[in-house]
Amino acid sequence: MPSVIEKPAAQSSGDPCREAAELIASYGHAMDDGEIDLWPQFFTSNGIYHITTRENHEAGLPIGIMRCVGRGMMIDRVKAFHTANIFEPHTYNHIVGYPTMSYDKASGCVTARSNFQVVRIMETGRMELYATGKYLDVIQQEGGSLKFRERVVVMDSRNVDILLVVPL
Amino acid sequence: MQATPHPSTHAAGKPALDFTWPVEGIARAPYRLFTDPEIYRLEQERIFRGRCWNYLCLDVEIPKAGDYRTTVIGETPVIVTRDHDGKIHAMVNRCAHKGALVCLKKQDNVASLTCVYHAWNYELDGKLKGVAFRNGVRGQGGMPSDFDVAKHRLQPIRIENFCGIIFGTFSEEVEGVESYLGPDMAQFIKRNLDRPLRVLGTHSQTIHNNWKLYAENLRDSYHATLLHTFYTTFKVNRLDMDGGIILSDEKWHHLSFARRAKMEEAAEYSEAKVHSASYDSALEGPGLLEAWEEFDDGITHSIQTVFPNMCIQFTLNSLAIRFFAPKGVDKTELFWIYLGYDRDTEQQSQMRIMQSNLTGAAGLVSLEDGCINEFVQRGTRNDPQCSSFMEMGGRVAESEKNSRATEAAVRGFWQGYRGIMGF
Ligand code: FES
Ligand SMILES: [Fe+2]
Questions:
Q1: Do A85 and B208 make contact, defined as CB atoms within 8 angstroms?
Q2: Is B179 helix (H, G, I), strand (E, B) or coil?
C-alpha cells in the first residue's frame, strides 16, 4: 500500500499572499507530475476538498462531483486510485492563472481565487481540454506550512468526459 | 421455458432490416447493435418515438408557473413547462414556423415561449399565440388572410406524472405509466420517490459508447463486485445478505437489490436508526459511509431500470436518478440527479451528501462504468458479425430472488428490445 509522504514545510517568506500563490502553483505541479500521494498533504487535517459544477455552485446545491471532508477521506481516495479504481492511464497538465488574494490578519487566512485549465493526456497520445474552471481557496498555516483549509473546484461545464479519478 | 422467445408483436408490420438475431437468442447480442447507424436510426423511431415512456424531468425541477426545462427523448429536443394553472405540458422544442429551437436554456421562468428567429410566440402549453407582423408592416406584407393561429402549435407530447417523475411519450397507444412499469416496479418507485423530493445536485458524464451498453451495464449484476472493488479493498463489512433480481413482465425493466441481515437491525441498532448502518471498514475517513436504515424492508442497495434509458439508484442513503441520452451511435450523455426528501433532517442530508462520493463521474464504487462500456465499444467495433456471450445464470430472462450472480436482467433487456424493434 502506498504511503502518504509528509510534504516538507515551505520556507517562509513572510508574505502570506506570495506563499499562498506558491502553494496554488505547487499543487498543480504535483498533480501533473503524478505525485498524487502528496495530494492529502496540501490540506489541513480537517480540510475540505470539493469538486462541483458552476450550475450547482450558483444554485447553492451541496452535491457536486467529489467531496472530501478531512484528510482521511483524501487518503482513501488516493488508496482507491492505486488499488481499487480502474481507468485508462492518463496524466494532467494544469495551467493555473495568477490568483486574486486577500489576507485576513485576524484569522491568518488567505482567501484566493484562480482560474484553471486542465489538459488530459491519455497513453494513446490523445490530448484534450478536460476541464476549465476556478479554484476558490481558503489557505492557512498548519504545522509550519501553508495548506488548503478549503479548496472548492468549480468546473465551468456540467459535464465530465469519461470519468474523474485524479483530483483537479 | 423457451431460450429464444419470439419477438413480441410490438413492431409487427415494420420492415425488418437486413439483420437476423443469432439462434441462441437473448443470451447473445450481436456487436453490430452498438455500431450500426441504421439500427440507431430505427431505435429513434421504434423505441424513443414508439411505445415507451421516456424520463423527461422531475416535477420538483419546475415548481413555479412559467418554469420550463429542456431535455431530450432519444435525440429529439423537448420542452417541459408548467403553465399558469400549475399544469405540466411537454412539447417538441421545434418552432412551428421554420423549425428552430424555441427554448435554449436548460431551465428558465418565462411568461410565454418565444422563438428568437421570427418571434413566433407560444402559450406555455405550446399553442401559438401570435405571429410577428401577421398583418404586415404599414399595410404591406403579412400572412395570407386565411392564416389561422389555431392550426399551428408546438408538437405536443403526452405526459404523465408518476411519483414526481414526468414521463413523456409520442405514443397514443402505450398504456399508462403505472401499467407500463408493472406492479413490482411501480411499487418500488413509490417506496423511493413517493414523497416531496429535493434536488441536492446534478452533473453529467460523457461516455463513449452506444447507449445500450450502459443499459446492459446497469442490469449486469454479475460485474458488481468484480469490476468495482472499492468495498472489498476497504474491507467494508456490509453485512448485506445476497439480494436478488426482479424483472418486469416484459423483462425490460429490472430491480436489483441487496438486503441487510435482519438480526443486525434488531439487536444492535434498533434505537435511533441513525448511524445504524455504520459499516466496519479500513477507511481512514469512515464518515463517508455513515448511513441510517431508511426503510423497514432491509434493502440497503438497489438499482432499478426503466426501459429505455432511466435508472433509479438507492445506494445506502444515496438516492439518485440516472438518465442516459444517446448522442450518436457511440456516444451517450449520462445525467446524475441526486435527491433527498423535503423531510430530511440536516444530519440526514449530510449523510446523503457524503455518500454521493460513491457514485457519479468520480464515484468511488462505480467510476469504472465511465470507461468499461467504452472498452467494449472499442473492442467490438470492428467485428459487427460477432456477438457477446451471456449465459451466467441461464439462458432465459427470469427473476432470480436469491442471487445476483446472473445476467438475467441483461437478457431481459434484450428480450424487450427485440420485441419493440421487431428483431
Ligand atoms: S423559426 Fe421560429 S419564428 Fe421563425
Ligand atoms: Fe457498474
A1: no
A2: helix
The amino acid at residue B396 is V
Residues of A within 8 A of B227 (CB-CB) are 86
The one-letter amino acid code at B128 reads L
Surface of B (260-299) touching A: CB under 8 A:
283-288
Cβ atoms within 10 Å, residue A25? 15
pLDDT for the residue numbered B240: 61
Cβ of B115 closer than 6 Å to ligand 1, yes or no, is yes
Q: What is the pLDDT of residues B177-209, one digit of tens each?
A: 999 999 999 999 999 999 999 999 999 999 999
Compute the average pLDDT of residues B400-422.
94
Q: To the nearest whole angstrom, how far is the Cα of A85 from the nearest Cα of chain B?
A: 7
Cell of B128: 401559438
Contacts of A142 (CB under 8 A, 6+ apart): A44, A45, A149
Determine the residue among A4, A52, A63 to mutate to test chain B binding: the one whose Cβ has the most chain B Cβ atoms within 10 Å: A63
List Cα–Cα distances, A59 to A54, A111, B200, B201, B211, in angstroms.
Answer: 8, 22, 10, 9, 29
Give me the residues of B, 3-62, that contact A with CB < 8 A.
none
pLDDT bin (cut points 50, 70, 90) of residue A93 is very high
For residue range B271-312, list pLDDT tens digits in order.
Answer: 544 444 557 788 999 999 999 989 999 899 999 999 999 999
pTM over 0.80: yes
Q: What share of chain A is helix, strand, coil (3-state, %, to 5)?
A: 25, 40, 30
What is the 3-state composition of chain B as percent helix, strand, coil, each rounded to the nearest 5? 25, 30, 45
Span from the CA of B74 to the centroid of ligand 1 (angstroms): 23
Please check the confidence at residue A81 and state whether its pLDDT lies above 70: yes
Whether B234 shows a pLDDT value over 80: the answer reads: yes
- Pairing relation of β-strands A100-104 and A90-96? unpaired
Beta bridge partners of B169: B158
Reduced to 3 states, what is the DSSP secondary structure of residue B351? helix
pLDDT at A51: 98
Can you tell me which residue has the cell 517562509?
A12
Nearest to B251 by CA among B415, B405, B423, B390: B415
Strands A100-104 and A109-122, sheet pairing? antiparallel
User: pLDDT of B51-73, one tens digit each?
Assistant: 999 999 999 999 999 999 999 99
Size of interface A-B (CB pairs under 8 A): 132
